[in-house]
Design a protein that fits this description.
alpha/beta, two-stranded antiparallel ribbon
């Protein structure tokens, strides 16, 4: 589902367009959707290279992709990595991010004797004042702050940047990169990569941005604790807009699922979500909250940044494959990425007339020949053996890609 908001005020002239990309969270499923959608955008718009933009903003799972693109890792390379392709030296394994946080468990368990001792002393001193709710509150201190160990997020990205010959410092980037997390003790959003917050590894900032409370423990950075950036806003696109971008591309994979009024065809029966239990109920509630806030934010951007063109990509609300995909299945990941790739191509084609005028203002052209090719799939887009995961092979891949562009243009 493509949303287009054309600028209502004239943009600056006689200067190249400054382009930004904001990527929301959504867990592993959201990241795979984003990859498919981004790859479709990348190959369908001539003059757009998503790994050569000016400003990147990443939140939660979207921070993974934003950090990689800002490091000049192409969408093609990212697809090879996240799809565990045979050509990828580094392979993404979702199960790595679901390792129990054993250290957190042990640290919390070690507090139990002191908590019980304190409770017992207060009960002896004030036997009539200690209620059941107070007991529950005291014991709550012994509960782990997260179920899974998110140190693996930092380790994975650190290894990825090392193996691909890229840097892990904000200062080494040619583009501006903002990774957004929320300060646990103040509730305020922090843009890592901005002045005063750019002295930490990118991988650590991504770990903090993806620390969803309950699933992952807060991440300590310079004596402060940070959690998932999506708790404040969905896209945090204002981080890119404040840098004066002329065109902002947004990707949000989280929309509430709509099964339709009645079961029929490929629609899901209206009561299937309740049958799915708490996980599906929480997923639906979280998605509704995320999209609602994002719509409000985008509406404000139209007036606060009237000279910026806004393009937002989201899944269709009736898309079963996005909502029910099992990300831990290799086949499902490939199918989901292909699905997002094709759905985005269809969106671009259906809105081509309106989209072409927006792109033309920024020196870009919609590749209708590719969009109208119904046989084109993700595998064709990626090509065989094109993944580049070392400096030499990356330079070779870039040269091949440039040759492709010249041939296509000719």
């Amino acid at each position: 589902m493509l949303t287009i908001h054309q600028a209502r005020a004239p943009r600056r002239i006689n200067s190249p367009s400054k382009i930004g990309l904001a990527i929301a969270g959504g867990g592993p499923v959201g990241a795979i959707y984003e990859l498919g959608a981004l790859r479709a955008l990348d190959e369908s718009i001539e003059g757009l290279n998503l790994h050569e933009l000016d400003v990147y903003v990443g939140v939660s799972a979207g921070a993974f992709i934003a950090a990689s693109l800002a490091n000049r890792i192409s969408t093609s390379e990212l697809c090879h990595i996240f799809m565990a392709d045979e050509y990828a030296r580094l392979r993404f394994k979702p199960e790595l991010f679901l390792r129990p946080a054993y250290r957190e468990y042990l640290e919390r368990a070690a507090r139990v004797p002191a908590i019980l001792r304190s409770m017992l002393m207060r009960m002896i001193r004030h036997p009539g004042r200690f209620t059941v709710s107070q007991v529950i509150g005291e014991l709550g201190q012994a509960l782990p702050s997260g179920i899974f160990d998110n140190e693996t997020i930092h380790d994975f990205l650190e290894q990825a940047f090392r193996l691909t010959g890229h840097g892990n410092n904000f200062s080494e980037l040619e583009a501006q990169l903002f990774i957004v997390a929320v300060d646990l003790d103040s509730g305020s959003a922090v843009r890592f990569g901005s002045e005063g917050h750019d002295d930490i590894p990118i991988s650590r900032a991504v770990q903090a941005s993806a620390a969803l409370p309950g699933l992952y423990p807060p991440v300590e950075i310079n004596g402060r604790y940070f959690v998932d950036g999506a708790l404040r806003r969905t896209l945090h696109a204002s981080a890119a807009l404040d840098e004066g971008v002329d065109l902002l591309l947004g990707i949000n994979p989280l929309v509430p699922f709509d099964s339709g009024d009645e079961a029929g065809g490929n629609q899901v029966p209206a009561h299937q979500l309740i049958k799915g239990g708490l996980p599906l109920i929480l997923s639906q509630a979280f998605r509704a909250l995320i999209q609602s806030r994002m719509k409000i934010g985008f509406k404000k951007y139209r007036s606060s940044h009237a000279s910026t063109d806004l393009l937002l990509m989201e899944p269709d609300r009736g898309d079963e494959e996005i909502f029910f995909t099992n990300i831990f299945s290799y086949a499902s990941r490939n199918a989901l990425c292909e699905h997002a790739f094709q759905a985005t191509r269809q969106d671009l084609l259906s809105r081509s007339a309106e989209l072409e005028s927006v792109l033309l203002a920024h020196g870009m052209i919609l590749r209708l020949d590719r969009l109208q090719d119904s046989s084109r799939d993700l595998a064709q887009s990626l090509g065989k053996g094109r993944s580049s995961h070392a400096p030499v092979s990356r330079d070779l891949s870039q040269a091949l890609n440039e040759l492709d562009k010249l041939l296509d243009h000719g």
